[in-house]
Amino acid sequence: MVSRDQIESVLGRIRPMMQADGGDIELVDVRGNSAHVRLTGMCAGCPSAHMTLYMGVEMALRDEIKEFEELVVL
Amino acid sequence: MRAPGTFSPDNVVVGHSPRMRAIFDFVKVVSKSDSSVIITGESGTGKEVIANLLHHASSRRHQPFVAVSCALFSENLIETELFGHERGAFTGAIKDKPGRFEMAQGGTLFLDDIDDVPLSMQVKLLRAIQNRTVERVGGTRSISVNVRVITGSKRDLKKMVAEGNFREDLFYRLNVLPIVLPPLRERREDIPLLSDFFFSRFARARGIDVPAISPAVRYAFSRYRWPGNVRELENACERIVQTCTCGTVRTGCLAAGVLFGAGDPAGAPAAAAQLTAGETPSISLDDRLRDVESNLITWALKVSDGNKSRAAELLGIKRSTLGDRIVRCGLAEPAAADAAPAADAASADALDGAAVSRPEPLAVSA
Questions:
Q1: A60 and B278 in contact by Cβ < 8 A?
Q2: Residue B321 C-alpha, separation from nearest chain A C-alpha, in angstroms
Q3: pLDDT tens, residue by residue, A15-71
């Protein structure tokens, strides 16, 4: 079971930059080995930004947390 | 061989870094000579750009510029590629074919990736450069060639000589005028200039306005290591211009590798992002639009400290419309945000303040 802290520590690496742009990646829920996140701020409606989230953040989470399974963007 | 392309000396960004300025000054000086130039630099640092520049600044500029990557060919192919072959020299050689040396006659020959040329071939190369003559494969006559030879290498040839992987005599023949290009991470001061140049070039090509660049993106660009150097920066800018949907480049536009690489405390590149696209999920346009609306309203309320008149102004809508939309999006009103309704011009400063502070979690019931 993945802990909230583990996920937050990965998200924390990109969070300051997203916040500087008036956005954020909010960890809404951790279910089993999957995380539910929400993109807020100016990039929230951008399909390209969602692609970044799906592909990049999930990849980073899987790299750093072995048991991590799936990133769900709400 | 690479396409001759559309090189123009006007499209070269010099940059502010003292090292690059010195290099460009040196290029001006040595372009007048016919001596061999060797350009050393990591992949993507601009070796071919410098070679092109040398050619275009020389008296040979109206003659051909031929660029060949020696890494593209197998050992046997390099010889026919560089020197050409006669009809019947080998199976499939149905007609005479001039080599790159002959094609560059009167002009400049840029041999990139010279460090990938096998030892057996190096001796033939040395003879061609030294005697200014080539012999086609299967041919007997010597063809004299008048070319200026510029070589490119991503490895330090001197070290390769010491290790026995590069012929010393060829090294000294090539290493008359050495130019060493620094990796982009060693001249970070040029990143803003280069990225602005690429952004405007790609925006022009796409027929859109040059996007605004957020400070966070500039920060990420300046922190990232750029292992692929200027070429990688160019590709990152192209990707962003092609995918940006809102006219402003923000962190969400960046490839995850750049974002994580820049966010890494060690400044080390993120684990090579072997990203594969997943299945495209179906989307509901209405839901998506409501998300966008609710996010923008949340943002506007945030930066105007909950002042709805100011938020409405920021969003370019009427104060009453904003109220309706807040209800429609189901945005709960933050308890403490009942600020005085007077639109306060001074709160424009709040934009800067809010840009770095962490947004409070305004309740968004999506």
A1: no
A2: 20
A3: 888 888 888 888 999 999 999 998 888 778 888 888 877 788 888 899 889 899 988
Instruction: State the DSSP code for B87.
Output: T
- In angstroms, the CA B189 to CA B166 distance is 35
Distance from CA of A71 to the nearest CA of B (A): 12
State how far the Cα of B68 lies from the Cα of B269, in Å rounded to an integer.
30
Nearest CA to B12 out of B66, B57, B49, B61 is that of: B49
Q: Which ranges of chain B have pLDDT less than 50?
A: 1-4, 266-283, 334-366
pTM of the model: 0.69
What is the predicted pLDDT for the residue at A41? 81
B214: nearest CA in chain A?
A: A21
pLDDT of residue B332: 61
Whether residue B268 lies within 8 A of chain A, CB to CB, comes out as no
Instruction: Tell me the DSSP string of A14-74.
Output: HHHHHHHTT-EEEEEEEETTEEEEEEESTTTT-HHHHHIIIIIIHHHHHHH-TT--EEEE-
Residue B338 DSSP code:
-
CA distance A39 to chain B (A): 9
